[in-house]
Design a protein that fits this description.
- The chain is of the alpha+beta class and about 120 residues long.
- The protein has one domain.
- The chain has a 3-stranded antiparallel sheet.
């Protein structure tokens, strides 16, 4: 799954901000999943930057918590990573863990993360 944008820097920056905001929204949905029992499983939404993505991944809650060890780590289904925004840091069987490439996207992730101090 790829997205295209004009080569000018302002279009690229808008695209990166929009993708980062979509990823943050996905993470906020996952953070709201209740009950949050460490021994249970839950269905988590893909935290990719593609608008309208409806992919999900069923995981043990403790496995999702491993993804969330830092503010800029996001769970995405394979093929939903966006090279201009994400850097894949781990590949799991059913999902990838990505981090933000650009400083502005990293700061957006930090500012929106309720777990960050």
């Amino acid at each position: 799954m790829t997205e295209s944008f004009a080569n000018d820097s302002s279009s690229k920056e808008r695209f990166q901000r929009r993708a980062a905001a979509a990823e943050i929204n996905g993470r906020q949905v996952n953070e709201a999943i209740e009950p949050r029992r460490p021994e249970g499983t839950a269905v988590f939404v893909c935290e990719c930057g593609h608008l309208g993505c409806t992919e999900t991944v069923e995981l043990p809650v403790v496995e999702y918590e491993e993804v969330r060890t830092d503010f800029d780590r996001f769970l995405v289904v394979p093929g939903h990573e966006i090279d201009e925004v994400d850097k894949v840091v781990e590949r799991r069987r059913r999902y990838l863990i990505v981090v933000k490439r650009e400083p502005e996207a990293r700061e957006m992730a930090r500012a929106s993360d309720e777990r960050s101090p």
